[in-house]
Amino acid sequence: MPTFKIDDREIPFEPGETIIRAAQKAGIDIPHYCWHAGLSVAANCRMCLVEIMPPPGRPAMLLDVLAWDKDKQDYIPQKKPKLVPSCQQAAADGMVVKSQTSEHVDTARAAVQELLLLNHPVDCPICDQAGECRLQDYWLEHGATKKRMRDEPVHKPKGVVFGPTIVYDAERCIVCTRCVRVSEELAKDPVLSVRERGNLNEIVVSPGRQLDHAYTLMTEYVCPVGALTSIDFRFKARVWFLRSTRSVCTGCATGCNSFSDFDPRNQKVYRYRPRENLAVNKFWMCDDGMLDHRRIHEGRVLEARVSGANAALPTALAAASEVLSNAKPDTTAVVLSAEHSQEDNFALLSLAKAFGFGNVYQSGRPAGPADDILRHADKNPNTAGIAALGKAAGLKSFVEFVEAIRAGKAQTVIALGSATPTGGGAAALADVKNLVAISTHEGAFPERARVVLPASSWAEADGTFVNAKGMAQESEKVITPQGASKPAFRLIAKLATAAGKPLSWKKLAELRAAMNPPARSSVAPESASLGAE
Amino acid sequence: MEPLDQELDEAELEMPTEPMLLNVGPAHPAMHGTVRCVMELSGEIIEHVDVQVGYLHRGFEKMCERGTWSQVFPYVDRCNYVSPMLNNVGFALACEKMLGVTVPERCQWYRMILGELARMSDHLTCDGAMAMELGAFTPFLWMIKAREMIWDLMEEETGARLTHSFGRVGGMASPPTEHLKENARAVVKHILSVVDECEKLLLGNRIFLDRLEGVGVISQADAISLGWTGPCLRATGVPYDVRKASPYMKYGEVDFDVPVGSASDCFDRFMVRLAEMRQSARIIEQCCLRMADSGPVNVSDPRIILPPKEEVYSTIEGTIQHFKIVMEGLKLPAGEVYAYSEGGNGELGFYLVSDGSGTPYRVRIRPPCFLITGGLERVITGAMMADVVPSFGSLNMIGGECDR
């Protein structure tokens, strides 16, 4: 592999790769605003300027400049090397690049930083970006010069509502055009553009339009400053109080890798951020996925219920185990859920096997909008996973489940999950006499269940989800289980114990060991698990 | 029935004695804080003593690892709480050594003035309390009254009498007040008169002298091997003073002597402290003469020092600077450093380890008291029970810095 030198460090690169990307892969951060690995090159912020040494025996390209001489109190002519943006310059074999070690680069970056802050408002205390703002980080790292401009800064529109998800502040904007490029290149909807020039320029939405495509929150995500803010996250939390865990979006079958940002003090998830995984979601997530964190706290089943009334968990478990003990294998159905992780579904399958229930069906959320970017029509994170898990047990579809209810073959039902794929299915559930639902959210199952056991959501337990491409990905636990909820696999284990047929595993690691050889390896030949960072 | 006129051996008339275990402390008025001495007494003679520290349960070194480097100042304030300014400056010096910066000259003189006043406050407290514990209440009141004047001056300068939290990495929280020199000279003048008066009052007192002279003796070799520093070491005749041995700030440029004792008993320790106050007065006068009345106090590097408030509220650069230093903390380069200065009781060392982030990785404090208290056992073993009071008093153990 060809190599080049940056600040005396030799790093390899793929032919055609830019200096900044190759450096980033080697763990060297060249400061930048407008460049993003997933977008085209704009080279307009000039923050990533580097000095490239001339090839041996060749003169350096020099510019004539006037420099202020303190002693002479006058400008004197000087020469300075022509700097190049490392985001645009392709690396070449044997190239010698100076980034931190060049005084010219230092001066240039300090000047860029000073320019960007000329008209910047004093907004840090009320800005959602504070704490993860490039302007803040780079000001201290590069230059740290005091304000020299005495003029009133240029004032521009603030709090401009771009659409249902995004608010724009033109004064904070450095017009790096990342949001413009996201709309154009990722969402294929060029709804944003730049108006005016110089210090008057700002981002605008096309006349008659709103910023309302399916990837609007990516514009906010790529914004290196606080110009674009998400209405969902605006003024909700300060980022330095948040902690992150590596999770997988459960909004659809794509299984985008994400970070869940939560406040450990009140155990609340405040937002998702995309986590780079070139094999799955590259750098991005869709709006539906980004806002899916709300479901962690909204519409949840947090108490056990028996016959519609709240009950303590032991009471509900006793009621459920009674249902289980009285069930006859011919008229009992077990329903796996594509909403739940492999671990939860495996636990239910183990329970079915222990009690000799042979009728296994599947359920999940109804299909939704899709595109050829990231959004998958299947809105369940684990359809491929339960298909593989239930293969041996003869997993049948939800339609067949509804038919079985109609035929009286499903008088007792042990179901994982909350939602049903079609409207008709929900009505059919009313005919089930003994329904035990292990549910995270309110929905058709818990509504019609005789016994409801409150299950933790994906954010409150570790879990494996198999996406549409067949990749098994692990999602880490973010917060502690809310209310009386417990991870579904734990509830199932308790239920089995209460009914007198304890399962062979107790802990998550044991469950995974039991599940692993057949279940996980068969579905994930090229497991991406936790994506490349 | 035994005959009453039985001839008895003289020795058998003595009371049969067996060693008595006596707990002094951890909460005892003579223990100057929470230290516990388990004494094995034979009559009034201390046969063995087990000195136990660690009853304060503060864990300040661990707490230092939670916040930013600047947030360590309130913790070091509470180490030796009689001379917190010396701790503040000592810690600031350690951080500055790591950063490789030197504060402006004006700040160095300022730190020296406040530091020497703090040293006087320390010595006044120690000598005053020693006298009081031996029954001489008047000198105590006079000395504490003089100390009050120092604390008033400190309040004027820093806003707080005792725990100032006034030091900053790269400078001080605020510049000297307009009347600093005037006030300092007035305070010093009063203190010197108090020192003279107390000296006359006490040194002509037979009881006082008898209870100090030849009591609590430790050999020079023992003191050195125990790691003693400060007045207690100098009382044994070793002229080790960090200000002279490895001058920091401007101590190399001022004239002062290092008073030493010879008998290394309680009396010498008492006298060394009195003499040091006179030396501190000399240093303060020289600092007052040489400190500029205007000029910068803090370093100008925006990565280290907070910007003025008016800049924070009116310019984005100031806001960012404030935000980064407050929220993330100033960043010390990764590495480790040991920096030491002369505290009230001896060498006050800070061993800092930084991982390059805004939060200390490790702050280890070498408090002079910890090592001196380690020698208490040797000082009072074999002494009379009553000698514990002057001996312990003259070592000037400060609970705050002794415990970890």
Structural features, described:
Chain A has 533 residues and is α+β, with helices and mostly antiparallel strands. Chain A contains 14 helices and 24 strands. In chain A, the strands form 7 sheets. A 7-stranded mixed beta sheet of chain A has the order 17-16-22-21-20-18-19, sandwiched between helices. The longest helix of chain A has 16 residues, at 508-523. Chain B has a single domain, classed as Orthogonal Bundle (Cytochrome-c3 Hydrogenase, chain B). Classes of the chains: A alpha+beta (533), B mainly alpha (404). Chains A and B meet through α3 of A and α13 and α14 of B.
By secondary-structure content and strand pairing, the structural class of chain A works out as: alpha+beta
Rounded to the nearest angstrom, the radius of gyration of chain A is 28 Å
Overall tally of domains of chain A: 3
Q: Name the overall outline of chain A.
A: elongated
Helix content class of chain A: 10-25%
The total of helices of chain B stands at: 18
CATH architectural name of chain B: Orthogonal Bundle
Please state the CA-atom Rg of chain B, rounded to the nearest Å: 24 Å
Number of β-strand runs of chain A? 24
Average pLDDT reading of chain A = 91
CA-to-CA gap between the ends of chain A? 22 Å
Strand order of the largest sheet of chain B: 1-2-3
CATH class of chain B: Mainly Alpha
CATH architecture of the largest domain in chain A: 3-Layer(aba) Sandwich
Using a beta-carbon cutoff below 8 angstroms, give the protein chain pair with the largest interface and the number of residues from each chain: A-B, 19 and 16 residues
Classify the beta-strand content of chain B into a percent band.
5-15%
Bin the helical content of chain B. 40-55%
In the CATH scheme, the class of the largest domain in chain A would be: Alpha Beta
Low-confidence stretches of chain A: 518-533
Overall shape of chain B: it is globular
Determine the oligomeric state from the structure. Answer: heterodimer
